[in-house]
From TrEMBL:
This is Amino acid permease. PANTHER family: OS05G0424000 PROTEIN-RELATED. It comes from Zostera marina (Eelgrass). Belongs to the amino acid/polyamine transporter 2 family. Amino acid/auxin permease (AAAP) (TC 2.A.18.2) subfamily. It is found in: Cell membrane. One of its GO terms (molecular function) is symporter activity. Residues 40-475 form the Amino acid transporter transmembrane domain.
Amino acid sequence: MGENCDVDCSLSISTKEMVAMELGQIVETSCHDDDGRVKRTGTVLTASAHIITAVIGSGVLSLAWAIGQLGWVAGPFVMVLFSFVIYYTSTLLSDCYRSGDPVSGKRNYTYMDAVRSNLGGAKVKMCGIVQYVNLFGVAVGYTIAASISMIAIEKSNCFHSKGHDNPCHVSGNAYMIGFGVAEVLLSQIPDFDQISWLSIVAAIMSFTYSSIGLLLGILQVAGNGEIKGSLTGIAVGKITHTQKIFRSLQAFGDIAFAYSYSIILIEIQDTVRSPPSEAKTMKKATMVSVAVTTVFYMACGCMGYAAFGDKSPGNLLTGFGFYNPYWLLDIANIAIVIHLVGAYQVFCQPLFAFIEKWVSQQWPKSGFAMKEIEIPISFRRRNSTNINLFRLIWRTAFVILTTIISMLLPFFNDVVGLLGALSFWPLTVYFPVEMYIASMKIPKWTTRWVGLQILSLSCFVISVSAATGSIAGVLADLKVYRPFKTNY
């Protein structure tokens, strides 16, 4: 007899689990997967879309500068190299979605779950520290990037009305505070699943400003009548030997930041249906998305470098290599701000959830931590929202802290490079490699084990080098920066 799917799907998860307990197992039905959750429906297409949406973001804006430091030979080569490394380590990570059997093994719903299942012990804590510190850093980076785009809008209009020779100095403090206020309000949205609309808007905006940057680069090259740049990048003489080394290393960090998405790969894989196995689908999606992203990045980065050569700005749309059409620059920077407003929440919600879950476990009977207060939001309709005092105070304090740090360190390019360097090796290479070795039970000192360890060690050296270059850039900026007072 066939199941009545409509009736079955209307059952709650808890009811399904009760049935499973009576049978001694979780029963897979036509409407529920083997873990009792509603059937996942994701495909290669949807998984690819999620990855591309996550990857293509503000990191694309620094790629022209990164290629400018490395030149026409090393720049594109490093970008392609990173794409291959990230593709390969992502395929390793996708094999860690299920523990044991790749078809029927226990599912790992998050990156941390995968680390816990495959490695356990101190490595789980290490992963958590790296992951959540990185999320905090991303919040700071996005606050800086959003304020710089708002500054660029004001300066663009100033240049249009007063001429390009006018300094048009603007303070970024007010814009950072404004961005922080918006994030305080949005951060009160309780759960990650309630901000899907924000993610969709942010994704549309990221493609909008990236495409405008590419278009302006093409127009600039056409206007110049030549392709600028050199085989080895900006030459020693225009900058010192030390600056050349540190800037080249920082460029590695910028490119790594632009490609990073491993931290959410398992979460995306958890949306994919089976059969075929989730790993097979995810590997295809990874190949498609990394290929599309690399082509797009190469076009944006190379076209920006071709347009400006050694003068490629650290942020393609706010560094004022372009001045006109000013209204198109304004549209692009508005799109950046809208995207970053949403992206801030997407990246911070997992951190919010982690802290609030820990507090609820520590003080389960605390009214301050647990009580939800219903607040009406409409007089005409019976609509309301819930406010939790701990959530209100802690999330507000978090946003205030990221805003203050952003005002102290408003260096977009250096911060982007540092974030990319710090997250690339541990989250994109080390943990995927170690989990794969553990899950596949690869013996030590075999050819494959040695090859994976060499890959991990090589990427560790790259991460440390890139972090060194970015830190040097921050220190150089601090020499001429006055906190809360420097104008752009």
